[in-house]
Write a structure and sequence with these properties.
binds zinc ion
Length: 181
């Protein structure tokens, strides 16, 4: 079992490699990943990312939620107004097979969870379910493309990670933001 004390000891190895040197708050690869919290859906593992390579938002489902859009807009705003650079991120939405959020499509599960978190809109929870990742990836790429809070200088693509094979398949190839959203 990985307890945090053991991991903090292990951190000494990372410090010794000096892999943190040269990293900045602008991702080296210009990559901004939105993916699921599922431990199998780790872009550092399946893309071989290193410290400083990418921005990553992880939430239940890897959905382009209002919160994810707000964080993406924040990073773009930070680049424009504090870092004096054009935010030219490649945003990659990566959802996966066998996602736990598919349970939100089950009435009894969704209803009991809605009660647990005092959700006012149970319908919104149903919409958060990833039962068919190809469908929800396309929806979420569209959500980014139609977001007026985002600059025209970023681009977005959509992908599915297969937990059974480790393979990432592109569903929506990279598209630029529309010029007049
Ligand atoms: Zn998931």
């Amino acid at each position: 079992m990985a307890n945090i004390e053991a991991l903090i000891e292990q951190n000494a190895t990372f410090v010794a490699t000096r892999a943190y040197e040269g990293t900045t708050n602008v991702p080296r690869l210009g990559l901004f990943v939105i993916t699921c919290v599922d431990p199998r859906t780790d872009p550092s593992a399946f893309f071989g990312l290193r410290a400083g390579d990418a921005m990553v938002i992880r939430n239940a489902g890897g959905r382009v939620s209002s919160e994810a859009l707000k964080d993406l807009a924040f990073v773009c705003h930070l680049n424009e107004h504090a870092l004096d650079r054009v935010p030219d991120f490649e945003v990659a939405v990566i959802q996966h097979t066998q996602c736990g959020t598919r349970w939100l499509a089950e009435d009894a599960f969704r209803h009991s969870f809605a009660n647990r978190i005092d959700a006012e809109e149970e319908a919104a929870l149903a919409a958060a379910a990833v039962t068919d990742p190809e469908r929800t990836v396309r929806l979420d790429v569209e959500r980014i493309l139609s977001a007026e809070s985002l600059p025209r200088t970023i681009s977005v693509s959509g992908h599915i990670y297969d937990v059974a094979t480790g393979r990432v398949t592109t569903v929506v190839p990279t598209v630029p933001m529309p010029t007049n959203a």
